[in-house]
Structures are given as structure tokens and as C-alpha cells.
TrEMBL record:
Its EC number is 2.7.11.1. The gene is pknL_1. The lineage of its organism: Bacteria, Pseudomonadati, Planctomycetota, Planctomycetia, Pirellulales. PROSITE patterns: PROTEIN_KINASE_DOM. PANTHER family: MITOGEN-ACTIVATED PROTEIN KINASE KINASE KINASE 20-RELATED (PTHR43289), SERINE_THREONINE-PROTEIN KINASE YBDM-RELATED (PTHR43289:SF34). Residues 1-266 form the Protein kinase domain. GO terms for molecular function: ATP binding; protein serine/threonine kinase activity. This is Serine/threonine-protein kinase PknL. It is an enzyme of class 2 (transferase). Keywords: ATP-binding, Kinase, Membrane, Nucleotide-binding, Transferase, Transmembrane, Transmembrane helix.
Length: 537
């Protein structure tokens, strides 16, 4: 990397080679003489003003996290097309380095590790901050105490992410629901990752196996990790039970929160110190520890069966438990189910679809499409409402595709095909205020893909935008007038000391019109303005 300066920071060297520290640099704050760990993000076009403001809000949230087991975030910034976050430098080795060099940790040391980690997660979750990327390399040892590094407040939604292919470690410790849907971020995801980290510390291997990241991603959804007590013979059953519950595939089957895990860990410590057996534990009443065992069998093993489990005389069952009453209810239930599941007619499907579409919103529109419109076309392809249903399906698909594209652009995700790329390109010109160029690009998209079924939705979207632009009476060849207007706006913003907004206009002109020979003099003006601004800073 050629850059040696990043705002007020002087970059020294990359930090680590493992996945958890990818994108990190050792740096020094020149004025404060403070060592920091810098995480850098390279974003095409430098990001939009909206995403930059969201990133600024994120680092302000992270700066408020003050907990001994969480590496502090000092803030962040932007430099050209790069963004960065500056964190407290933790000099100790990571948990993965410790296990690789010395082997699995004793279970007593894992308890000492788990206690501060659960406290840190409980603290962050109480403030609605989810790490979302916990793995052994992100647990670093400050002396004898573990510290969590690389906290993010918007890891799932921010476009400011390290651009690198996923690794085996990324999927080995990621919650299954997060692999299937990156938007399913919740505190339960951190609890799953914590279970994986404890499993690794106790056994020295990942909880999920696989030879490639793709295989890991597939296995993480279905593969059940082995019980720790079968891998580590001296590990207490209680600790193994905590890890097993944390690694449950369904979030609802994991502990309620980090506080509950912390209580369970402390209970493990007490039970292990007292030498309590499983049978005595499950027979003793409420406990935050969940151990799979039969309480009746446990009491019998302890000699309590005669005293505590005497069979009471069975009372006469109430009315709702008698056979004749249950039979009547079963008949009524079957009748009701048959009435509800009777396939609706064509007119009923249309009426239901119209109601959902009138209510608006993407969820209602999606339900109208899947539950009413598509069944109507499938069951009544030549019916009187079939053409209407096909038109409505087109409208819903346009809304869904438009929304999906906006999410991709906001997150900086790769566009999947040429039609999508051309539509996004035309949309940028329209948003910039150049409908003349935008309409030319929309028409080009229609011409290229009009007869390709796979790209029908983008052709429909382009035709919709063409109709909207033409309804406003837009003349062609207005790029020069629009650029002069935007340059004038940028000058006024600079006079009002709105430097960031003015800089965004100049950057947009270079990105959108850099290859347009007809407006090169105006493009050069924007380029000169940016150079002058850089020199003044």
C-alpha cells in the first residue's frame, strides 16, 4: 500500500495475517503520539453523502462503548475514496494465536475467559450494539484479560466493509441465520459465535468442519457440533451443556441473552467447585444451567423417589378431557379446516389481491403476488382476470427489483448482469439532475434487452422512467446546461462553507461525465476545483 498518511494518522505496518485482522494497520496519531489500530475500507466512488453520514453516526455510537473487555473506538474519517475507523491498540496475542501455539486451554481457563466476554456482550447488547463478526482472532489478550476487537454498530448494513473474499473462519463462527440472511443480525448471533469461540478454546478446532468457505457455509446450517465433553474428557458436563446451548441452530433455542449466559457460567464455576453431580443438579430445582437429563431418574438415583415422587390418586378428568367431547371438537375442527382450505374462485383471488395492493407496502404487495396473482394466472390462465393479474405481477416485480437494486447500491454490492448495470447507470444520471442523458440510457436498455425474458423487469422499469421523464417535457441535449447549474450550486455551497456537499457535486461530475467529450471543459472545471480544495487542505 503506497499511502503512508491517513488524515491525522501515520500508517506503519499491516496488523496480522489472519481473517480477523484483515484490513487493519498499525498507526500513530501524530499530534497525540498515541498508537492505534486502524481499519480501512475502500469504497467505489467514495460512497454517497447518505452512507457517509450513516458511517459517521456509527463511529459516534462506537465511541460511547466504554467497557474493559471492549477495545475502544476513537472515531473515524474519510480520505479520498477510503474510510477508516481508529481503535485502541491491543498488543497481546489473539485467542487463535494462543491456541495454535499452546494447544486447547484448560476448562478452568475457559471459564476465566468466558466471564468477562459475556459481561462485555451484555454491556454492548444493552446499548443495541451487536458485534456480528466474533471469532477467536477477534479476542485478544491484554495481559490475562480478554478484549474484544473490531466492534461495529452497523456491520450488516454499512457499505463500509473490508473488501475481501470470505474465509473458513468467517463461516465457522457465524450464526446459521446470518449466513442465510445478512440482515438477520441480532444479539443471538453473538451468542452463537461465543459458543463457537468457547468450543475452539476447549477443543482446539472449529465447531463446524469443511475444507472451503463454501462448504463451511453449507455445513454451518445443518452440521451439529459434537458435544465438548466427548472431545475433552475432563470438561465438566455443565460447561459442555452451556456451549451446546449456545451453538443451537435456532436462535430461540439459545440463551435469552448474554446476562443469562453469564449466570450460567458462574453456576458452572460453583457446581464444579462443589463437586455437584448431574443427577443431584437436575433434581435440585431451578438453575440457569440446562442439562439434558431426566429429573425423575435423577431423584431415583439419589434415593428420593419414594419421598418426593409418590403417585397421587388420579382425579376424574374435566369435561374438556373426556373422549366424547374431544371427538365432537375434532369433527368441528375438520369442518372448519376444510372450509378455510377450499380453493378460492377467480373472483375471490382478484378481490384478495386488490385488497392487499390497496393497503400498499412491499410486504403486502409480495403477499398479493405469491398468494393471489400467481395462483390466479396458474389456475385460470385464460380467465377474464388473467391479463389484469399479469400486469399487476409486472408492477410488483418492478417495485421488488427497484428496492433490491437500491439496497445493492447502498451496500456497494456487485451488480449481477448488464441490464441491471445499465439501469443503475441511467438512474444515477436521473438522480444527478440530468434527465436528458438518463432517458437516452433508458432507451438504450430497452433496445438491447426488449426481447430477452430474463431482463423483462428492467425493460419495464426503463419504460416506466421514460414515460415519467417524457411527461415532464424534457428536451434532449441539456447536459451542458445541467453541468453549469450544478457547478454554480457547488460554488454557492463553498461560499456557505458546505465543503462536503460541494465536493460531492464535483466528484459526481467527474464520475458521470468523465468520458463525455461534449462537456469536457466543464469536467475540467470540476477537476480543477477538487485539486484546489486538496491543496488548501
Amino acid at each position: 500500500m503506497a499511502r503512508s498518511r491517513l488524515g491525522p494518522l501515520a500508517l506503519e505496518s499491516p496488523l496480522g495475517q489472519s481473517s480477523g485482522t484483515s484490513g487493519y494497520w498499525r498507526a500513530v496519531h501524530i499530534e497525540q503520539r498515541r498508537n492505534v489500530a486502524v481499519k480501512m475500507f475502500s469504497i467505489p466512488f467514495g460512497g454517497t453523502p447518505e452512507t457517509k453520514r450513516e458511517f459517521m453516526n456509527e463511529w459516534e455510537t462506537l465511541k460511547k462503548l466504554r467497557q474493559p473487555a471492549i477495545a475502544r473506538c476513537y472515531g473515524g474519517g474519510f480520505e479520498g475514496k477510503d474510510a477508516y475507523l481508529a481503535y485502541e491498540m491491543i498488543e497481546g496475542e489473539s485467542l487463535s494465536e494462543q491456541v495454535e501455539s499452546r494447544g486447547p486451554l484448560p476448562w478452568q481457563a475457559v471459564l476465566d475467559l468466558a466471564d468477562p466476554l459475556t459481561e462485555a456482550l451484555a454491556y454492548a447488547h444493552d446499548r443495541r450494539v451487536v458485534h456480528g463478526g466474533l471469532e477467536p482472532d477477534k479476542i485478544r489478550m491484554a495481559g490475562l484479560s480478554p478484549v474484544i476487537v473490531d466492534f461495529r454498530a452497523e456491520r450488516a448494513t454499512s457499505v463500509f466493509r473490508v473488501q475481501r473474499p470470505p474465509t473458513i473462519e468467517d463461516f465457522a463462527y457465524r450464526a446459521p441465520e446470518l449466513i442465510q440472511d445478512p440482515g438477520a443480525m441480532s444479539p443471538k448471533c453473538d451468542l452463537y459465535s461465543l459458543g463457537g469461540i468457547l468450543f475452539y478454546a476447549l477443543t482446539g478446532r472449529h465447531p463446524i468442519t469443511g475444507s472451503t468457505p463454501e462448504e463451511l457455509a453449507e455445513n454451518a446450517v445443518h452440521q451439529v457440533p459434537p458435544n465438548v465433553s466427548t472431545e475433552v474428557f475432563d470438561c465438566p458436563t455443565f460447561l459442555s451443556a452451556v456451549v451446546e446451548q449456545l451453538l443451537q441452530k435456532e436462535p430461540v433455542d439459545r440463551p435469552h441473552g448474554a446476562d443469562a449466559v453469564r449466570m450460567a457460567i458462574r453456576e458452572v464455576r460453583r457446581r464444579s467447585a462443589a463437586g455437584t453431580g448431574v443427577a443431584e443438579h437436575v433434581s435440585s430445582g431451578f438453575s440457569p444451567l440446562k442439562v439434558q437429563a431426566d429429573s425423575k431418574e435423577a431423584r431415583e438415583l439419589l434415593g428420593r423417589a419414594e419421598l418426593e415422587l409418590r403417585e397421587p390418586v388420579a382425579p376424574k378428568p374435566p369435561l374438556w378431557e373426556r373422549a366424547w367431547f374431544l371427538s365432537v371438537m375434532l369433527v368441528l375442527l375438520c369442518t372448519f379446516i376444510g372450509w378455510v382450505l377450499w380453493p378460492p374462485s377467480e373472483s375471490q383471488l382478484r378481490a384478495r389481491a386488490e385488497k392487499l395492493l390497496a393497503e400498499g407496502g412491499r410486504i403486502n404487495m409480495g403477499q398479493a403476488k405469491s398468494q393471489c396473482l400467481e395462483p390466479l394466472v396458474r389456475r385460470f390462465p385464460d380467465g377474464e382476470n388473467a391479463d389484469w393479474a399479469r400486469d399487476q405481477i409486472d408492477q410488483v416485480e418492478m417495485v421488488e427489483t427497484d428496492h433490491a437494486l437500491s439496497v445493492k447500491l447502498r451496500r456497494g454490492m456487485k451488480l449481477r448482469n448488464e441490464a441491471e448495470r445499465r439501469y443503475a447507470d441511467a438512474q444515477r444520471f436521473e438522480q444527478f439532475g440530468d434527465p436528458s442523458t438518463a432517458i437516452d440510457k433508458y432507451r438504450s436498455l430497452v433496445t438491447l434487452f426488449d426481447n430477452e425474458p430474463d431482463h423483462r423487469v428492467y425493460v419495464n422499469l426503463a419504460r416506466r422512467q421514460i414515460a415519467e421523464i417524457e411527461s415532464q417535457g424534457i428536451r434532449s441535449g441539456e447536459a451542458e446546461r445541467i453541468l453549469r447549474q450544478r457547478l454554480s450550486e457547488a460554488d454557492k455551497l463553498m461560499q456557505a462553507n458546505e465543503v462536503f456537499e460541494a465536493k460531492e457535486i464535483w466528484n459526481s461530475i467527474l464520475e458521470l461525465y468523465g468520458d463525455n467529450d461534449g462537456v469536457q471543459p466543464l469536467v475540467l472545471i470540476a477537476e480543477d476545483k477538487l485539486e484546489a480544495l486538496k491543496r488548501s487542505q
